[in-house]
Amino acid sequence: MAARRSLAHRWLLILPFLWQVGAVPLVNEVQAAPLHIPFPMFWQMLGVVLTSVVIGVVYRLDRAAGAFEHDDAEVDAAAEGQD
């Protein structure tokens, strides 16, 4: 079994939280209205996109780090046992 690489990249998952919660006081006072919607609503929609991108990046980095090797082996063993 090969040694797994670091999973420190999972700290990236804090970014959507900081985006949605930490920056609210800063964005709440912005008067701009991109796409004719209030800026805080636009900020939240961008947060949904950011969250999706961050989760995708972390998933890819997990795969590269071998985080799912153990899970894949269990699934393969279970599939062989059902035959």
Helix content: 55-70%
| Biggest sheet details | none
Structural class: mainly alpha
List segments where confidence is low: pLDDT < 50 over at least 5 consecutive residues: none
Number of helical stretches of at least 4 residues: 4
**How far apart are the first and last residues' alpha carbons, in Å?**
26 Å
Write down the overall geometry. elongated
Query: How large a portion of the residues is in β-strands, by DSSP E?
Result: under 5%
| Helix/strand order | HHHH
* Integer-rounded radius of gyration: 19 Å
* Record field, number of beta strands: 0
Q: Taking all residues together, what is the mean pLDDT?
A: 82
3D structure, described in words:
The structure is a single chain. The protein contains 4 helices and no strands. By secondary structure, it is mainly α. It has a domain at 11-21 and 35-64. The longest helix has 27 residues, at 39-65. The radius of gyration is 19 Å and the shape is elongated. It starts with 13 loop residues before the first helix and ends with a helix.
